[in-house]
Amino acid sequence: MVSSRPALQAVDLSMRYSGRHVLRSVNFALAPGEIVALTGENGAGKTTLLRCLAWRTRPHTGDVYWHGEPAAHNGPGRAMVGLAAHETGLYPYLTARENLLFAARMHGLDQPSAKAAHWLSAAHMSACADQPAASLSKGTRQRLGLARALIHEPTILLLDEPFAGLDARSAAWLTDLLLNYRRQGRALCFSTHDLSVAHALGDRLIRLDRGCLQELPAHGARPSRAA
Amino acid sequence: MAAFWWLLQKDLVTEFRARQSWPTMVLLGGVIAMVFGLQLDGLTETRQALAGTMLWIATFFAAMTGLDRSFALERQDGCWECLRSYPISSTTLYLAKFASQALALALLQVVLTPLFIVLCHVAWQAPWWATLLVAALGNVCLAAVGTMIGALTSGMKHSGGLLVAVALPLTVPVLLAAADATRLMSAGQCDSAWWRWTNLLAVFAAIYLSAGAVLFEFVVED
Amino acid sequence: MNAHAASPLRRSTLDVFCAMLLVAVFAAIFWLAPEEQTMGPVQRIMYVHVAVAWCGLLCSIATAGAGALYLWRRTLVSDHWAQAAAEWGFLCCGLTLATGSLWAHEAWGVWWTWEPRLTSMCVLWTINCGYLLVRANLDEPHRRARVAAVIAILGALDVPLVVMATRWFRGMHPESPSMEPAMLGVLALTAVGFTLFSVGIVARRRGQLERLSQLEIAEFEQPQ
CA-to-CA distance for B26 and B13, rounded, in angstroms? Predict the structure, then answer.
């Protein structure tokens, strides 16, 4: 189901690092209940774009809107967005449970202990709940990082290569989670190198190439520049 | 308010388990105390006059080391960025980080002050309330400035060196006031001159803490 | 004549004006100012010392002000003013310490003493050093501007200490020594002259930074 107002809108985003063009006047819209798959070569700027959309990195020019509200200087609005990046945001010396509990408390959630327990169970991490995050395997840390990013149930989810490093069971869990979120009307954008995953999950495919966004069609048709 | 306590708890638990900042701070402070005591062995009057200064120099450098380690720990795996993304005010974040640094400095002073007195054979005639007051005010100033500059410079190239390069000139007036107040009170002279230095410390503490609470919003944005 | 052609002419006019100011100031110091009885010709250092000290303090305040303006308006123009003022302020504070040291050697018999005014000015100079060091370690313009602005605002807290040091703390530095009207006149002229010169230099440097920034943007905007 796609509502008329986009859940997330980026207008004329531009960004450069050390003279290198990363984003060039990128315009992008994400509708509620939509999954957009973002692809591109290594170093294309996918991570930078997602960070700008989450307003973790301030673009040099351009604006981002979350449900119509500007992202800049929008402290309370941050609760609407969840960014799961390469860096998991986990405190290595806190246990899995403590990390989730801390995130739930910081978001001001009701019954943070129950929320943390629910996510530990949902992500199949109950067995390692009381182990320090630093001692967990890479895949488990990744699931825990995802759980941390999503614990406050944001309406806009931005995921940076969420399937990288996940085993088949974890990938299936994540796929179910994202499809469930889509059914709930949340807006999702995830980056991936795996075109099969992109085609399988994404309602739309976009590609970042030399700072510009291109809308990728279904198999066989020519690509067009994203509006 | 709750967020302040959770943040402080997280810092204290992390530091207790990691044991990266506090032991390094105490070790560095102890080494400075040893070197000072060793070099001025036999020079009683000089030691007595310089003890306050050396104590605060040791506290400053130990504090900077601790701050650098603390923020490096926070920066691991994108934790600092996630912290900035939570819907908590920058003032709350600043005060929580400040409180954890202040506690670390208090622990350091509890260890360093007796260490200096013993290793340097300093005759300590200061009343307990004066010792606490000067220690607390100096502690607040160092923690207020250090938290601010530590957050600013962490993640940059040569963050440790930059932290000291920027924090030292900002805290020189504090160190001078604290050193003079310590020198006077260790000789039992809690008179008008001592109150002047202590009042100056109080003014700096108020200014730096207020400036930190206001400006931290600009420190945490990206 | 279009706007771009006018700019080099304006810059040249500014350069000539600044040069003439300097000449006038030094002419006043060496030919207008009467010779002081005790210290002789060496006392003339005082005119330069007071003027550059005043400019150093003014630049520190300007840096903090421009930084605060950046934090409010988020335009890099403010940051260019802040950087230009900080660079000139760093030089002025350094010159203050150097000229003060020359004067102190003649007046007090020492090159340096840790009295309150000198100490607080030295602190201000090292704050400027720290400010420029931090700027040099950050590449991204807006992050650099924001971080530098915070440091400049904190650093400006030292300015009242420098100004009031002789009043709040006992020290050797003269507070407001009595001088002949002719000397006071030259002092005022030197202070005004150096201030105008500083404004010109800072404006020139800001223009350079602006043009550098525009070059970067133009390079960025070039189609690939």
Answer: 18
Interface of B with A (CB under 8 A): 2-3, 6-7, 10, 13-14, 17-18, 76-79, 81-89, 221-222
Residue C60's CB is within 10 A of a number of other CB atoms, namely 27
**Domain of A113, in residue numbers:** 8-225
C48 confidence band (pLDDT: 50, 70, 90)? very high
Q: What is the pLDDT of residues A122-170, one digit of tens each?
A: 888 889 999 999 999 888 898 899 999 999 999 999 999 998 888 888 8
In chain C, what is the straight-line distance between the N-terminal and C-terminal CA atoms, in Å? 33
Q: Pick B222's closest partner by Cβ from A56, A79, A108.
A: A56
Total tally of structural domains belonging to chain C: 1
Mean pLDDT score across all residues of chain B: 90
Query: Which chain C residues have a beta carbon less than 8 Å from that of B156?
Result: 134, 137-138
Q: Which residues have C-beta within 8 Å of that of residue C47, sequence separation ≥ 6? A: C29, C33, C186, C187, C190
Q: Which chains lie within 8 Å of chain B at 3 or more CB pairs, if any? A: A, C
pLDDT for residue A222 is more than 50: no
Average pLDDT over residues A68-91: 85
What is the β-pairing status of strands A35-39 and A204-209?
Answer: parallel
Please give the Cα distance from C77 to C210 (Å, whole number). Answer: 7
CA distance B116 to chain C (A): 25
Using the structure block, give the residue that is written with the tokens 């300007």. Answer: C62
pLDDT reported for residue C126: 94
In a domain, C220, yes or no: no
pLDDT at residue B48 in the model: 80
What are phi and psi for residue A138, nearest 5 degrees? Answer: -60, -45
Q: Which CATH number does the domain housing residue A112 bear?
A: 3.40.50.300
Beta bridge partners of A132: A95
Rounded CA-CA distance B138/B132 in Å is 10
Task: With 0.90 as the threshold, say if the pTM is over it.
Answer: no
Q: Are B162 and C133 in contact (CB under 8 A)?
A: yes
pLDDT tens, C196-217?
999 999 999 999 999 998 887 7
Q: Domain limits at C193? A: 40-173+180-205
In percent, how much of chain A has pLDDT > 70? 93
What six digits make up the tokens of B127? 């009343």
* Alpha-carbon span C67 to C146, nearest angstrom: 8
Inter-chain CB proximity C154 and B165 less than 8 Å = no
Rounded Cα gap, residues A7 and A27, in angstroms: 14
pLDDT at residue A123 in the model: 86
CB count within 10 Å of CB C104 equals: 20
Asked if residue A71 lies in contact with residue A55, where contact means CB atoms within 8 angstroms, the answer is yes
- Which of C142, C219, C224 lies at the smallest CB-CB distance from A19? C219
**Residue range(s) defining the domain that contains residue B9:** 2-220
C23, part of any domain: no
* Residue C219 placed within a domain: no
Number of domains, chain A = 1
Put the strands of the sheet holding A35-39 in their side by side order: A81-84, A156-160, A187-191, A35-39, A204-209, A212-216, A224-225
Instruction: Report which of residues B155 and B98 the model is more confident about.
Output: B98
What is the mean predicted confidence (pLDDT) over C12-27? Answer: 84
The domain total for chain B is 1
Chain A residue numbers touching C140 (CB-CB < 8 A):
17
Residue of C nearest to A210 (CA): C224
> Which candidate, B129, B158, B60, places its Cα nearest to that of B101?
B60
